[in-house]
Amino acid sequence: MTDLTKLTIADARDGLKNKDYTSLELTDAFLGNIEKANDKLNAYVAVTADKARNMAKASDEKLGNGTGGALEGIPLGVKDLFATEGVHTQACSHILDGFKPTYESTVTANLWADGAVMLGKLNMDEFAMGSSNETSYYGNVINPWRKAGSNQELVPGGSSGGSASAVAAHLCMGATATDTGGSIRQPAAFTGTVGIKPTYGRCSRWGTVAFASSLDQAGPIAQTVRDSAILLKSMASVDPKDTTSVDLPVPDYEAAIGQSVKGLKIGIPAEYRMDGMPEEINTLWQKGIDWLKDAGAEIVDIAMPHTKYALPAYYIVAPAEASSNLARYDGVRYGLRVPGKDIVDMYENTRAEGFGDEVKRRILIGTYVLSAGYYDAYYLKAQKVRTLIKRDFDLAWENGVDAILTPATPSAAFGVADQDLHSDPVKMYLNDIFTVTVNMAGLPGIAVPAGLDNSGLPLGLQLIGKPFDEATLFQIGQVIEDAAGRFEPDNWWG
Ligand SMILES: NC(=O)C[C@H](N)C(=O)O
């Protein structure tokens, strides 16, 4: 019998409708994989097996009487950042110990309304701060990929490392994720999966634990471009509960798949050719250019002169917003409370024990750049830089560019506990060099697997689109997927 967990969402959707198998069988197959693999990969921090089986049974009934939704019976994983009613939601932080929301996030509610089945909550960097999934209170996630002939454990990227690892290892068919500076696209690139960060305002942020509110955006991680299009269609909505939700209809993204890219203008920004970037990344980028050229797209050079300021500006804006958002964790309202001699002592004890080092570092940076005397020099300047970054993109669109092609990350997945990266946080932050510009400008960006490096690890290319033009990213992304092929890690985990 075929391994049901290897199916794409698109195929499973057809198989379920044809009654080739039931959602319960599909769900049990994934629960079986999780049981075998989670000890080794640490992708899930909570498995909701009973809930999953109940949801699957309800889906089977609907599939039986022809009332199923667009994702009826499809088992998914949920990043621990999304509020799920009555279920573990801790942003993988100690400070949210025991927190179970009384309500559901809009994004997950949309998925369940379309019939998807929840397998559990996925590991992530604490409060989505990180690029390696090593800041999680629940321990790091392991990338199912390894270098050829090596047993070294590699990181899956972050902060949605649990989502990416679970999709790559077939512990779910697709997963929700979020991206503030690259947290969907970088882990997707590190695990050979597809990740799209939609335009800011496309998915509701209601019920998603806030990190940096002007940058955070939800999106899917999936095995294929088509599956990402299917998931985003369900996740996205116009939501009066989120004032930044934009009132535009959600198109049928899947309809863009398979459409020709002939005549589309693809911009190549020279500023993304960084000094010291491994030659393999440049080679991969050139391959992508050639594939799109062969498919009839027009390749044009574009200038993005403010690119080099994006990373420092992001690491001012994001911590500033984080320091404000995280002020609410005081030991009174949610999760952990560490007693003290008075209330101030209790606040201090709770926050000292509840937050990990990276979160504390961001809170300190954030309060510093917002403090009197430094606000103008740092925060205000970073906001001005943000406008200039957005203008670089606006100019490209005004010149008729339909999408921009860049590498997704400056390297392939690196080793767990890499001393070089951990000794200097700025080196870790460099992982976001190609992705933060997109968040700063509020644009959509997709990472698509495009090849393997010399040691056999996946690498991704990124496509950046015009506001609310995710459809074009799926259209071009499919051409890259078709040209590159799909990539599977060797199953060493069980
Ligand atoms: N949240 C993200 O998008 C990840 C980014 N590396 C950060 O640590 O801010």
UniProtKB/TrEMBL annotation:
Biological function: Allows the formation of correctly charged Gln-tRNA(Gln) through the transamidation of misacylated Glu-tRNA(Gln) in organisms which lack glutaminyl-tRNA synthetase. The reaction takes place in the presence of glutamine and ATP through an activated gamma-phospho-Glu-tRNA(Gln).
Family indicated by similarity: Belongs to the amidase family. GatA subfamily.
Protein name: Glutamyl-tRNA(Gln) amidotransferase subunit A
Keywords of this entry: ATP-binding, Ligase, Nucleotide-binding, Protein biosynthesis
Enzyme Commission number(s) of this protein: 6.3.5.7
Domain named Amidase: residues: 25-473
Gene name linked to the record: gatA
HAMAP family from the UniProt entry: GatA
Subunit structure: Heterotrimer of A, B and C subunits.
Organism whose genome encodes this protein: Roseibium denhamense
Active-site feature positions: K79 (charge relay system), S159 (charge relay system), S183 (acyl-ester intermediate)
Keyword Protein biosynthesis: yes
Pfam (any one): Amidase
